[in-house]
Structures are given as structure tokens and as C-alpha cells.
Amino acid sequence: MAKSKFDYVRNFETDDTCLRNCYIVVRLDGRNFHKFAEQHSFTKPNDDRALELMTRSARSVMEELEDIVIAYGQSDEFSFVFKRTSTWFKRRASKLMTHVASQFSSSYVFYWKEFFGEQPLLYPPGFDGRVVLYPSNRNLRDYLSWRQADCHINNMYNTVFWTLVQSGGLSTTQAEDRLKGTLAADKNEILFSEFNINYNTEAPGHRKGTTLIWEKRDEISTKRTTLPGGEEADVAVTRSRRRVHAHRCDIIGEAFWAEHPDILEGDH
Ligand code: DGT
Ligand code: MG
Ligand code: MG
Ligand code: MG
Ligand code: MG
């Protein structure tokens, strides 16, 4: 293409190439979801339709974009981790982040009906994005642990808070006062002794958030074939397929990483 005299403006673009060898994390967070949840009557403290829609949208991001090895979500946020050797879009932060944010947002709208049925989406939701680089496996794991610890702390607080309001008859101000200064053990105790709820048996997805990874699993399907004798029969066919699978488990400890050793690349 011939150059025009306007061509120099390209040099005003800033270089936002992500440092090599680092994991690139893109974290999205729903814009003003306090209001969005209120307006769409999300159940408190957790709305499974909303959480599953978030997960469905994240799955679409992993399937449509390249090089995402793991994603972790809770509340109105989702983090996507690009493998450290990724060269997708020349590792340009703005390209990666905007692709993640737009694919996620359009999926959230596209799949809304699958989870909310006839309940209308009242206005277009938005998500902010940020990029963070992590140079080591330890740093990346600590990042994911930080998000899961956040999920735990918030969910425990919200579970007790809304139990005190919904089942205990307290006003929101009274529940807030009751929880001031309490530790995890105190919250467990309130749930157990006053409401007969064992926090550890609450839904894993609420306590642990959702982790998405690629996994190869055998899938069995039936195929109609013609046998040597000429008659038709259904036979079982097994093939190994790579798909995005959801886990709702602890990712802070060693067990998850020992079970899935191929998520992380070695530190060099
Ligand atoms: P932001 O992110 O600064 O634009 O503002 P927000 O309002 O999105 O604040 P954030 O992201 O710190 O907190 C997430 C909000 O989303 C929080 O107010 C509770 C709401 N939310 C998320 N998941 C659920 C849910 O399952 N049920 C209900 N009722 N609310 C939820
Ligand atoms: Mg926020
Ligand atoms: Mg938000
Ligand atoms: Mg949030
Ligand atoms: Mg283009």
C-alpha cells in the first residue's frame, strides 16, 4: 500500500506489548452490578442463573479466543489467564483485553435467555477489564488464590448476613451490627447454632467460585453402522475430546494443581 502524508500518525500509537515469559491475566468485572443485580431481581446472596450465565460467557471466551489455559470467576468478575508463551495479537495488552471484554459482554447478552427465560434484560450490561502480568507460577497461583480467598470471605459474610435477615428477621442494619468484628469461626457458629446450617456443605460454586480448564476426556456416542451380515446396528464409539470443563473446588492448595499438571508451564 502506498504511503500517504498522513501515515505518520501511526507513530502516535503506544507500545503495550506484554513482557515475554509472563502469564497474562485479564480480569473483567461487571460495571455497577450492585444496581444491575437489584434491577434484575438477583436472589441474595447468590443467584445461580446469574452465576451460570457468567460461566457460560467465560466458556465462550475460552472457546473463541486463543491460548487461555484457565479462567476463574466469582460474583460479577472473571479472570482469564493466557499461557506465558502466547504470541496471540503480538501480546498487545489492549487487543487481548478488549477481545476478552467484548466477547464476554456479547455472550452475556446472547445467552441471557438461556438462564433467565422470559425475564427481560432491561439494559445493556458492561464490563471493565484490566491486564496484569505474572512472571512465575507462584505469583500466578497466588493471584488465583487471592481471588478465591476473596470469594470465600465475601460469600461467608453474605451467607450469614442474608440468613440473619431472611430467616432471623433482623433488619439489614441489625445484621450489619451483629456481624461487626466477627471472625470466620463466629460466623460459622451463628449459622450452625442459630440456623442449623453447616457452612461447609453450602453449594461449592458459591463457596469456591468457578474454575474453567481445558480437559481431554473420553466421550461415548452411538453410531449406526452396517454389519458384515448386512444388517444395521448401533455401536458405541469412544473418542477423546478436548473441552472446557467447570470445577467448583479449592484451587489454593496443591491437590488441584497436582491433578492438572499441564495447566502451568515450567518456570525457566
Ligand atoms: P463496580 O464494579 O465498581 O462498577 O461496582 P459493582 O456494583 O459492580 O461492585 P462490585 O463489583 O464490587 O460488586 C459486585 C456486585 O454485584 C455486588 O454489589 C453484588 C452484586 N452481585 C454479584 N453476584 C450477585 C448475586 O449472585 N446475587 C446478588 N443479589 N448480587 C450479586
Ligand atoms: Mg469494583
Ligand atoms: Mg462490579
Ligand atoms: Mg466485582
Ligand atoms: Mg480489524
TrEMBL record:
<feature type="binding site">
    <location>
        <position position="30"/>
    </location>
    <ligand>
        <name>Mg(2+) 1</name>
    </ligand>
</feature>
<dbReference type="InterPro" id="IPR024956">
    <property type="entry name" value="tRNAHis_GuaTrfase_cat"/>
</dbReference>
<keyword id="KW-0342">GTP-binding</keyword>
<comment type="similarity">
    <text>Belongs to the tRNA(His) guanylyltransferase family.</text>
</comment>
<feature type="binding site">
    <location>
        <position position="29"/>
    </location>
    <ligand>
        <name>Mg(2+) 2</name>
    </ligand>
</feature>
<feature type="binding site">
    <location>
        <position position="76"/>
    </location>
    <ligand>
        <name>Mg(2+) 2</name>
    </ligand>
</feature>
<dbReference type="GO" id="GO:0005525">
    <property type="term" value="F:GTP binding"/>
</dbReference>
<feature type="binding site">
    <location>
        <position position="76"/>
    </location>
    <ligand>
        <name>Mg(2+) 1</name>
    </ligand>
</feature>
<dbReference type="InterPro" id="IPR007537">
    <property type="entry name" value="tRNAHis_GuaTrfase_Thg1"/>
</dbReference>
<feature type="domain" description="Thg1 C-terminal">
    <location>
        <begin position="138"/>
        <end position="253"/>
    </location>
</feature>
<keyword id="KW-0548">Nucleotidyltransferase</keyword>
<feature type="domain" description="tRNAHis guanylyltransferase catalytic">
    <location>
        <begin position="6"/>
        <end position="135"/>
    </location>
</feature>
<protein>
    <recommendedName>
        <fullName>tRNA(His) guanylyltransferase</fullName>
        <ecNumber>2.7.7.79</ecNumber>
    </recommendedName>
</protein>
<dbReference type="Pfam" id="PF04446">
    <property type="entry name" value="Thg1"/>
</dbReference>
<dbReference type="Pfam" id="PF14413">
    <property type="entry name" value="Thg1C"/>
</dbReference>
<keyword id="KW-0808">Transferase</keyword>
<dbReference type="InterPro" id="IPR025845">
    <property type="entry name" value="Thg1_C_dom"/>
</dbReference>
<dbReference type="GO" id="GO:0000287">
    <property type="term" value="F:magnesium ion binding"/>
</dbReference>
<feature type="binding site">
    <location>
        <begin position="29"/>
        <end position="34"/>
    </location>
    <ligand>
        <name>GTP</name>
    </ligand>
</feature>
<feature type="binding site">
    <location>
        <begin position="75"/>
        <end position="76"/>
    </location>
    <ligand>
        <name>GTP</name>
    </ligand>
</feature>
<keyword id="KW-0460">Magnesium</keyword>
<comment type="subunit">
    <text>Homotetramer. Interacts with MFN1 and MFN2; functions as a guanyl-nucleotide exchange factor/GEF for MFN2 and also probably MFN1.</text>
</comment>
<keyword id="KW-0547">Nucleotide-binding</keyword>
<dbReference type="GO" id="GO:0006400">
    <property type="term" value="P:tRNA modification"/>
</dbReference>
<comment type="function">
    <text>Adds a GMP to the 5'-end of tRNA(His) after transcription and RNase P cleavage. This step is essential for proper recognition of the tRNA and for the fidelity of protein synthesis. Also functions as a guanyl-nucleotide exchange factor/GEF for the MFN1 and MFN2 mitofusins thereby regulating mitochondrial fusion. By regulating both mitochondrial dynamics and bioenergetic function, it contributes to cell survival following oxidative stress.</text>
</comment>
<keyword id="KW-0819">tRNA processing</keyword>
<keyword id="KW-0479">Metal-binding</keyword>
<dbReference type="InterPro" id="IPR038469">
    <property type="entry name" value="tRNAHis_GuaTrfase_Thg1_sf"/>
</dbReference>
<dbReference type="GO" id="GO:0008193">
    <property type="term" value="F:tRNA guanylyltransferase activity"/>
</dbReference>
<feature type="binding site">
    <location>
        <position position="29"/>
    </location>
    <ligand>
        <name>Mg(2+) 1</name>
    </ligand>
</feature>
